[in-house]
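the two lines:
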Amino acid sequence: MDLPAEEEQPLYSQRPEWADVVPLEQYESVAPLAPIFYTDEYRDATNYFRGIVKSGEMSPRVLELTENIIRQNPGHYSAWQYRYKTLMALKSPLDDELQLMDELAIKHLKTYQVWHHRRLLVQQTRNPGPELEFIANSLQVDTKNYHTWSYRQWILAYFNDDALWSHELDFMESMLESDVRNNSAWHHRFFVVFQSGVRSGDEDRDAVVRRELAFVKERIAIAPNNASAWNYLRGVLDHTKISYCELQAFVLPYSLPQPPLGTPPEVVDLESPLPSKNSQLPCVAAVEFMADIHEAAGGGDLVKATEVGYVLYELGKYLTYRSFGNPWQMSTILYARDTGNTGSRNP
Amino acid sequence: MNAVYWGLTALSIMGHGDALDRDEMVDFVMSCWDEEAGAFSAHPDHDAHLLSTLSAIQILLMQNALDRVDIDRVLKFILSLQKPSGVFAGDAFGETDTRFVYCAVNALSLLGKLHTLDVEKTITYIRHCRNFDGGFGHVAGAESHASQVFVCVAALAILDRLDEVDQPTLCWWLSERQRPNGGLNGRPEKLEDVCYSFWVLSALAILDKLAWIDSSKLEAFILSAQDTESGGIADRPGDMPDVFHTIFGLAGLSLLGYPGLVDLDPVYCMPASIIENLGLRKGWKALQRRTS
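prediction for all of em together
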């Protein structure tokens, strides 16, 4: 629990301006099962909090008290609730409160309450613009923070203003530029492109799909061993009901080892960017994708399935059995894994 | 309140559910009753919340003291928290999350009052939380996360609506949570953490796909996160243990068939025998308990 950073404040019990409040101890009626060793500052502040809650006081000094408690324990949801009610009762300037929240949110990025409080405030101020910048800044601190991304989605969807949506693609591209494996950014992209309605400029859905497929293929080419990108690719295909088989030409080079040095370069195919020179190949996700393609093409080819399973084993990865729904196929692969024996097939 | 539930369940899984004084525990639970709201809070004199209300019900059930609860008032509290979209708020503060949907469905089920729930509305909301990767987020549109996958899958299991799950896609996504060191993470490219041994594992057990992860590697990972001096299990090897990671590590070990542990119901995260006696057991499958 943090103590206030400035010079030591006197306890509330020592402040004459609080003398009119009756502090209430926590364990009045019950012997605690597992007592927490609170600091004197926390015990003092929460005793006075219980006191003003009982009397129903909503005043500026209550704002000071609740801020004190929240700084020591950002998870004290009753303090947050009471603070919000007090802000409303006092008609306090909410922009000042948001500035305070800017500081606390960065300090306590993983606390539910700090984000929920912010939502309540922005619902009152109805000023979402600065929020997107605030979110971008806090994402610099923790690029995958679940609450932060969720809050961004809430801002966009709740206000549903084209001006707010318009920068999202650029924003996500820059996040993925910093870290192409940021699963939250990929998820957000799917949300913006496919799950939030159709905005002006994006009415040609075929063009949108072509753009997205090109985008994800390019990212896979740069860094093939990226589960999020492959999930995104699958997601786009599933959503638009495009068969996995149509991606075979693109996926195949990723499922094979790097061509030996001196191999003449392939003719550039814009539809199927090749893996970058430094990629570690074969790429497991591509091998799994090829297995899915075989299955989609009319599956049941046990020889191919065993071969794919052996490749996966060789890559030292835990086998994923999504493509092998048949338990007999699965046990063949397990046998191969356990004995190194693939029967009559060459590895 | 949550910590007491975690501690009691952990002790029960190890066959020592009576290690803490029963009367003291029941008194503590009842001291958290929020008379104004008609439900339980996390601590005396705090506001009632769904999370603590569920934990209170679970504790009282395990201690055979459910008769202490004013069920009608609790029922009213729970149902009052459902929003028009079908999601549940956690309390009057209004934060919404699929965790709270699970708390509501679980609590109503344990109280024998599931029939009072608007099931279609609830399922519609869960469906909106289903993402392109088969997983579920904490609200509609949010990124898939293993803990939210657990609450949505478990809620659907209680409601007998696992048909809403894209099982092949989700089970693959869940099996992909296993990292080279055997531990499980919560979403792609994140670190492993012992608590995902429960969130991921229980979802797989409910969908009968526990074979899709390497159980011996996971078991070794959980055991390596123990603090051999002070006891308890931490989030990963070398860190400080806490009750939260201890219960979920133990829960994972129980589902993996670790010898000497009591069977755990992954839907309710409570001893399986209690859930069976209530007639609430669903079709989940754990690994066979080993004898040594």
